[in-house]
Amino acid sequence: MNEILIKNACVIDPISGINGEIMDIAVSDGRIVEEVGSGAEVIDAEGFLTLPGGIDSHTHICGTKVNFGRYMSPEDMRAGRTPRRGRMHSTSGYSVPTTYGNSYRYSGMGYTALLEGAMAPLEARHTHEEFAYTPLQDTMANVLFDGNWAIMEAVREKDTKRAAAIVGWTLAAVKGFGVKLTNPGGTEAWGWGKNVSSITDVVPYFEVTPGEIIDTMIRATEMLALPHSVHIHCNNLGLPGNYRTTLDTFDLVPDLNRKRQTLYATHVQFHAYGGTSWSDFCSKAEEITRSVNEKPQIVIDMGQVMFGKTTTMTADGPMEFNLYRLHHNKWSNHDVELETGSGIIPVLYRRKNLVNSIMWAIGLELALLTKNPWQCLLTTDNPNGAPFVRYPEIIGLLMSRKYREAEFATIHPDTEHRVSLPSIERELDWQEIAVMTRAGQARALGIVDIGKGRLAPGAEADIAIYPLKIGEVDPGREYERVIEGFRQTEYTIKRGRIVSRRGECLVWGNNTTIWVKPKISERYDMAQDPAFVEKFDRYYTVRMRNYPVQEEYLKRNLCIETETEL
Amino acid sequence: MRVTLQVKPRKKPFLPIEAETIVPAHFLDGTDLVVWKGNRELPLSDVFSVTVEGTAETADEVEITMRGDTSRIKRVGEYMEAGRIVIEDDIGMHCGNFMSGGTIEIGGNADGWLAREMRGGSIICRGNAGNYCASGYRGEKRGMTGGTVEVFGNVGDFAAETLAGGCVVIHGSAGDMAGTEMRGGTLRIEGDCTRVCGNMTAGTCYVFGTVHDMLPTFRRRGTAVHDGVTLTAFTGDIANRGKGNLFVRDYKYMD
Amino acid sequence: MVTVEDGRIVAADNACTLGEQKFLGEPRLKGPIQREGKGWKDITYDEAILRTVEMLRDAERPLLFGWSGTHVEAQCIGVHMAEVLRGVIDNTSSVCHGPSILAIQEVGHPGCTLGQVKNRADLVVYWGCNPIEAHPRHLSRYTRYAEGFFLPNDYLDRTVIVADIRKTETGNIADEFVQVTPGGDYAVLSALRAIVRGKRDIIPRSVAGVPREQLFRIADRCLNAKFIAFYFGLGLTMSRGKYKNVRNAIELVSELNRHTKATISAMRGHYNVYGSNEVNTWMTGYPFGIDFARGIAFYNPGETTAIDVLARRECDACLVVASDPAAHFPRACVEHLADIPTVVIDPYPNATTAFADIQIPVAVTGIDAAGTAYRMDGVPIRMRRVLKTDYPSDEEILGRMYAMLQEDHPP
């Protein structure tokens, strides 16, 4: 039996209500336990900050679109290359690293679970193949339903149960985790080079609105009792004045779940824009967070932008085309039949650019103006706002007004007239950072019950020990020490094994893909629905029997079966 | 300081040697340097007889002479900032990549990617240069950004691709698609070429010979006299919203 | 539908002509063979694996080539082998659609899955390709003769334009055939881009054999279409200018997206060449032509691609997996293969066998081995096993080799 005793850990575990206590943590067989035998390996944590393993609830790391980002960017690949060393394979890339590059860098920063934000069901096998080569984290994939023909038909017929049945069948078939809506309705319109411009706009041919799709999918998700809520990328991403669409979307959301939010809105920075054009572009983070503060049924993540080069990639095909017209750099697009779309372009966020400066400020405002840290999680929508390796700097910015002021002095001078950031005094504390980087994610994804995001006995032994003594660092003044501390753990422990020691990964890996299978009665089994099967075989280019992802693609995995109303 | 590197005979002479260590600055600290032969690391002295005469305080005072069959030695002068390298015969691929200062003189021919992504300094090649002379890297928008490259012979295809700054002079002829995707700098071709400057957005190109298969998407603006020769002036590439300047003595379209 | 008798496939119904050849293909080697004098001797799988590993270990610059005819799982092991050996790994892209990849790396790729084309494309352009011969099912499944959701009257609802240097069979079934002077594709595409941008005035009377009026007509057909699917083949990638031709076609399609919906895709060859590109990309960052000599991945097609490495005699051992370079490569390349130790892993004897020192027969993916392949539009497909034989799979053979190589480099 593999046992570890971590002594003198300074633990922050918000879910268990532990805030900075010096204590020992016993680990046996991959789980946290009350005590271990005398033969356990002892790690002296020396009073260092010890947190549950980091969880990224919205990142793009595996699958068709991510790999196309790599494929089209040899210039990005040469920006970060390491050779094979010890148990680490070679890596390449900065904003879209190879799978090993992602896995090692996340692990070095203490991350032990990742949610791929957008998987097209038709191409799910690809995502799972890359998961197998992302060895040091547990992985989950949100499944795209934004332009799903069968779903839109069910919405048009106002048949929520049928929509739920389709979601249930698809999730189980493609071994997905949750429901993702990316620019709902817009990706189907993009099949004709068009888009939708509000939640009441009508999708060509299907005669449904984004609002109707969102409402039906929220109810279907709760009907299926999925661990995670609907996960939305709102319509109109990146456009001046889009905050109204975001607020309209939030206003649609009922409070239907006692354990978690009813809607998870991702990368809200990109959806909190005022103005009517780029010339009067400004922040509407105050309006957005006012709505979030009133609605416990909503959780958002930041989608923080950081200055520098990166690659943007999303299922939102029309949005990427707009970006392409703005930047006139390379542009890729990949529409997926009967389901969704996607687009990719490289970008450079510049300090001297007013729009980019305002975007940078908006992300921070969202985090600082959302009163409850459980409702605003730390992300960059990796790699869209910035590669995830920039997270430590974002923590620094949230914990230090002084750092924000120093950065503010270097950005476009007109920014101060367009944002409220300079007037915000709030500095987040260690506990709030722990919520925004792991505990909040675990609760929002609905994986606390399977042992994620906490360190109490019974939890999975996913632990990050950072070289930070919280009693000895004043984050407001010494933000550089905070950034350094979060950049690399002393130890990252995953499933009870030390996987990373000061950035050096020590095991080959093999972790768990978490997927969801709603229990659905035969009456609602879409595999036996003649109309569904007939349409599938007629309009897809793969046969329905070849569509489900076979068990061979799931190495180690955990299936969460849910009790449904169907 | 004068450093002489005389190539020794080696087994499997076709296997390339990667010798990015051969830049003047490195010899200020001695000759205990390594090169790579395929996947094996070798001391510099396994591949060359090394002789050093005199001393130097700075890289500017170092001159390296390479003798013998250097046609398979790659990456010589990479990231060079100062000093001088004289190659008596042919040189392998990637000579002078990312170079920002100093001088490289090649007595023979240069293989592909001579002066790729060069930033400054100067390279003279007495013979011919291969494909992608003074070009960029795959997927990168900007290639060479500064310095000068002068080739006395002919060059292969895609010379000065994505040129963004600096000056490239080809005394002989250029192959296909020289100056393609140019966005700055100056390209001067004394001889002939085909399909020059496709997709260019900015920069200036002179062709003193004939352009064969001239692209149809350049707008004729009249004539201009340059170095005493009357040239036809074009703007393009119109296909790409380009505003580059192309001057040619003679041209033929592919009808 | 496949009929099996005595462990051999004797009939394959409902397969296209290419599929039929694959199923009923020539006889397979019974076991590994090694060259002895002018002939061959039988060796065991254990001996063959050990000798291959020794060959690779000794090499200072091994080349691992092929990969397009095998499944993803084996391709992954291949990358790990190249990494631990510090060798060069490349696939058949360098002789087919490598130029398409280089073009995509410059300007991106507005594409889609085949179902989008089937259900929506009212205008299909085939440029420098002849699907009737090379991709026999393409027209009936996805374009000319396919029924789509928004195009219920297949033939009547769709317009097909074919551009090529001579009229092919596909040209015969087109609504419009565009005959381009050989080597003139780039100029014609540039002219179309300028027209789509509204610069009709600069177009000369004819461009590379195509009259101005026809250029205008094609551009108008594009601008008036609802959904354009542009397909190109080796006529574009392997003619003068290569990747710049493809780049120009992509930029035309990107430009058209300002006016309507347009997508572009390569008509790719080997059934799983795209799988090899995908695997290489997620594991090394680059789709083909990767040199691990220095430990890190270095990519420079024209230098690190198999044809160039072989023609310049820059490698000293070669492992060929699931492909036949001797049948497709220039003579200088094949001569070097003959000079250096070469091992072929392939179910069938082929032209490369004549230059090899050892050949190891394996199961065929989709017949007696299961595995993943990527369709040319990026959709991953599970290839099922329809026959049980004693042949080991590529994955098994390569897995054993990699395990031995790993022992040389304990972590």
UniProtKB/TrEMBL annotation, chain B:
<dbReference type="InterPro" id="IPR036485">
    <property type="entry name" value="Glu_synth_asu_C_sf"/>
</dbReference>
<dbReference type="GO" id="GO:0015948">
    <property type="term" value="P:methanogenesis"/>
</dbReference>
<keyword id="KW-0560">Oxidoreductase</keyword>
<dbReference type="GO" id="GO:0018493">
    <property type="term" value="F:formylmethanofuran dehydrogenase activity"/>
</dbReference>
<dbReference type="GO" id="GO:0046914">
    <property type="term" value="F:transition metal ion binding"/>
</dbReference>
<dbReference type="InterPro" id="IPR017550">
    <property type="entry name" value="Formylmethanofuran_DH_suC"/>
</dbReference>
<protein>
    <submittedName>
        <fullName>Formylmethanofuran dehydrogenase (Tungsten) subunit c</fullName>
        <ecNumber>1.2.99.5</ecNumber>
    </submittedName>
</protein>
